[in-house]
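F.,

This is the one I mentioned.
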């Protein structure tokens, strides 16, 4: 029917106008929970680079969502109301718009905190390989463009074979890692760079976490 075609068009318009809006909504809900808690430090263990950059673009995403909903609600308000009833959703399109406005306010507030270097810093974690270095540089550039403080890089899973080691694979991988480590130190000479070794066991449990965490503040001494 003409109405269902119009509704499909609305959904397509929204999907193309606001990629990642589902993640944005979830992020807004998390932020509301965080605001209600009292902690001295909050750590976000973010997803890989692409997803993290989408998180950083959420304020813009919601601005586009609100503009789109505002534009369409006047044209298709009655139909959206009818569809909400058929889908068992209580309330009306004005309620949905009000919720989006509320979410936008929360995310904008959090975004302001993200851009305050006194409150927020971003610690990049990578491994000493080409692709990881490329992704780290991409992330640093985007963080800088977004006015988000970042001056720490953790390089994880480094091999430090003893000089008398008979492991050829270890030696080859160590040479590769050293090549990219030199590039990391050249690119980020103003950063604080922490080197972490490849461990022989999983970091699970409180005691192992405490032991591992010391490596973040006490420089690792490779075997001689």
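My design for it:
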């Amino acid at each position: 029917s003409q109405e269902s075609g119009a509704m499909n068009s609305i959904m397509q318009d929204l999907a193309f106008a606001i990629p990642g809006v589902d993640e944005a909504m979830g992020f807004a809900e998390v932020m509301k929970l965080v605001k209600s808690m009292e902690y001295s430090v909050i750590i976000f263990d973010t997803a890989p680079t692409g997803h993290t950059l989408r998180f950083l673009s959420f304020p813009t995403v919601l601005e586009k969502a609100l503009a789109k909903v505002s534009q369409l609600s006047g044209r298709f308000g009655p139909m959206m109301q009818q569809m909400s009833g058929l889908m068992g959703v209580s309330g009306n399109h004005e309620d949905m718009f009000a919720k989006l406005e509320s979410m936008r306010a929360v995310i904008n507030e959090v975004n302001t905190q993200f851009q305050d270097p006194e409150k927020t810093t971003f610690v990049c974690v990578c491994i000493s390989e080409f692709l990881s270095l490329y992704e780290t540089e991409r992330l640093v550039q985007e963080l800088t463009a977004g006015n988000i403080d970042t001056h720490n890089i953790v390089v994880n899973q480094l091999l430090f074979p003893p000089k008398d080691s008979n492991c050829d694979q270890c030696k080859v991988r160590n040479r590769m890692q050293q090549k990219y480590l030199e590039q990391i130190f050249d690119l980020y000479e103003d950063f604080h760079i922490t080197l972490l070794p490849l461990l022989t066991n999983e970091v699970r449990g409180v005691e192992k976490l405490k032991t591992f965490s010391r490596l973040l503040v006490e420089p690792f001494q490779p075997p001689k």
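DSSP finds eight helices and three strands in the chain.

Talk soon.
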